[in-house]
Amino acid sequence: MYKVTLIPGDGIGPEVAAAMVKVVESTGVDIEWEKVDAGAGVIDEYGTPLPEHVIDAIKRNKIAIKGPVTTPVGKGFKSVNVTLRQTLDLYVNLRPVKSFKGIKSRYEDIDLVIVRENTEGLYSGIEHKIGDYGAETIKIITKPACERICEFAFNYAKDNNRKKVTGVHKANIMKLSDGLFLNTFRDIASKYPDIKSDDLIVDAACMNLVINPEKYDVMVMPNLYGDIVSDLCSGLVGGLGMIPGANIGKDYAVFEAVHGSAPDIAGKNIANPTAIIQSSVMMLRYLGEQEAAAKIENALVKVFEKGENLTGDLGGNATTDEFTNEILKYI
C-alpha cells in the first residue's frame, strides 16, 4: 500500500481532486490518501495558506498530489506552489505536452516535454522597492542548479527514448546569468553524445513552437521561461485543462494540475479534471505502477476519440461527474 498526501486546493480543486481519486482507485492500486488543506480557505484558521502540517505530511509520505491553489495577483500571500517547490527543493518541474485525437486543436501529433528549473531564477522571491520610484527583482542562477536540471533533462531523454534536448535561454542579453545556464547546458550535453542537442533564445523558441512544434522533443530552461513556454505549449493541445505537471526533487515529489483554481465555476460540477488525472498517471509511473498508469491513459484516449460526455471546455456539455464516469467505464 502507498500513502499519498492529497491537497485538494481551492476553487475547483476539491471537485477535480475527487474525480482523480475515483479514477486512480478504479485501477486497483492500493493507496491511502492523507488529505490536508492549503490555500486561501485556511488562512483564517492558520494565518498562512500553507500550514506547517501540510509540509510535514509531504515529508512523511514523500509523495503528494494537489489540485489548483489560488495565488493573488500583485498583492497578498506568496504562491503556495513556489513555497512548496523551494521548501522541499523540488528542483524539477516536468510538464509533458501531448496531443489527443478528438480534442480540437490546430495541431496534431505533438509530443514534447518541458523541463523547467523550479527553485531559482526570477521566482527566487528576492524583491525590494526603490522608494516610490520603482521596484527591483533579483534573478538568481547558480551553477549547481543549472547542472542538476540539465542532467535531469538528458537522463529523462535517455530513459524515455527521446532523441533531442533543446536548451532555452536569453544569453544574448543576460550574458552572465543566462550565459551561465547556456554554458552549463553545453557542458552537460557533451556527456551525452548519443542524444542530439541544440539551444535557442527564448523568444525564437516561442515563435518556432507555434510554427513547427513537431521539431522539438525535450526542452530545458530556467524558471520563468519554463512557466511561459509550458503554458504556450498547452495552447497547442487544447489548453491548460489538459496538461499534467510534476515537481520532483531528491527526496520528494508533488504532482499537480497546472491550471488555475477557476473560482467562477467552482461548485458547479462542470470543471474538467483531465489535468490532475493526467498528473496521477505521472504519479503512478513514478511509483512504478506502470499497468495502472496505462489503464488511465488508454481510457482517456478512448474517451477523447469517442467524443461523448466531454466537459464544456472540450466542446461538450457533460458535468465533471459524467466525464469521470466515462473514464471509469473504459477502465
From TrEMBL:
SUPFAM superfamilies: Isocitrate/Isopropylmalate dehydrogenase-like. Its cofactor is Mg(2+); Mn(2+). Its EC number is 1.1.1.41. GO terms for molecular function: isocitrate dehydrogenase (NAD+) activity. Coiled coil: none annotated. Keywords: Magnesium, Metal-binding, NAD, Oxidoreductase, Transit peptide. The keyword DNA repair does not apply. Residues 3-327 form the Isopropylmalate dehydrogenase-like domain. Belongs to the isocitrate and isopropylmalate dehydrogenases family. This is Isocitrate dehydrogenase (NAD(+)). It comes from Intestinibacter bartlettii. The lineage of its organism: Bacteria, Bacillati, Bacillota, Clostridia, Peptostreptococcales.
